[in-house]
Specification:
Elements (H helix, E strand, L loop, with lengths): L7 H16 L3 H5 L2 E8 L6 E3 L1 H7 L1 H4 L5 E12 L3 E13 L5 E15 L2 E11 L21 H12 L7 E5 L5 E5 L3 E7 L2 E6 L2 E6 L2 H7 L4 E5 L2 E4 L3 E5 L2 E4 L4 E3 L2 H12 L1
Parallel strand pairs: 1-6
Antiparallel strand pairs: 1-2, 3-4, 4-5, 5-6, 7-8, 9-10, 9-13, 10-11, 12-13, 14-15, 15-16
């Protein structure tokens, strides 16, 4: 890029395209702007790469995995001088494994671009997963995971440390229209009482169904807990709790009644 004036919008676009190419498994596009001494720091211990060849070696297993869906992307220019630009951003990465497991990772990154011989080159990326401190310490996997392990096997097992396994069967709800709707349990975030029925809040929207919340609870698996007279939550979607409020992975906040608080805390600890 010979133009001495770099537009912020162009830099943001280049960063976004580079991130997307990585998750789309387009290796050639990903490494094209990287320098030979490119430095990558990932969120896991073995993801420390000094040099482009080392980056390709460490990420080899990831390029053998299927593409990942990105959402909620945002990037901003943090700093720049005559020859250096620093961009920061975040996004949500979602993948469905062959066994039906859905993994969500909220990733934050810093991207350092430099002008070298008139062209913008990517010299450093530092990425990390947003991971709140768990309420209790769960046992670590028995087998140590390294860069030789399948990447999504690593992510799946890491996910079990700080989240609750979600059953894979579909749940049945009778809508206000009289039709039965079948939804994967993992997709249901919470239920909210409304008049003589409920609203089922999922990752993809809302569904108004017949039947009181108490009646719905009788047919839901144990991962769903009543936390309030008007709310029941899927424990797998709870990111954190405090008196007397639960925050879900998507940022939604739900009330917790005083008598349900310790019950919810114990359920999450299990």
């Amino acid at each position: 890029m010979a133009n001495p004036f770099i537009k912020e919008a162009d830099l943001i676009r280049m960063t976004m395209e580079n991130v997307r190419s990585f998750y789309n498994r387009d290796k050639g596009y990903t490494i094209a702007p990287m320098t030979d001494d490119f430095m990558w720091i990932g969120s896991n211990d073995f993801q420390w790469c000094e040099g482009l060849d080392e980056f390709l070696r460490v990420t080899k297993n990831e390029y053998d995995e299927p593409p990942v869906l990105l959402s909620d992307e945002e990037y901003h220019l943090l700093f720049h001088d005559h020859n250096t630009w620093v961009v920061y951003g975040r996004y949500k990465a979602t993948v469905v494994l062959t066994d039906g497991t859905v993994l969500h990772a909220h990733v934050r990154g810093t991207y350092v671009w430099r002008r070298i011989d008139g062209e913008l080159r990517l010299t450093h990326v530092h990425g990390s997963h947003a991971q709140d401190i768990p309420l209790t310490q769960s046992p670590l996997p028995q087998q140590r995971i390294t860069q030789n392990s399948p990447y999504f096997d690593f992510m799946k097992r890491l996910d079990t440390i700080n989240s609750i396994n979600t059953e894979k069967e579909k749940l049945s709800f009778r809508g206000r229209d009289g039709m039965f709707h079948y939804i994967n349990a993992a997709e249901v975030c919470y239920l909210k009482a409304k008049n003589q029925g409920c609203i089922v809040c999922t990752e993809n929207g809302e569904l108004e169904v017949s039947g009181l919340l108490a009646a719905q609870m009788e047919s839901l698996p144990p991962q769903f807990q009543r936390i309030h007279k008007s709310y029941a939550v899927n424990l797998a979607h709870v990111a954190s709790i405090r008196r007397f409020k639960a925050t879900l992975l998507d940022g939604t906040e739900l009330p917790i009644s005083k008598e349900k608080y310790m019950q919810l805390k114990k359920a999450l600890a299990k």
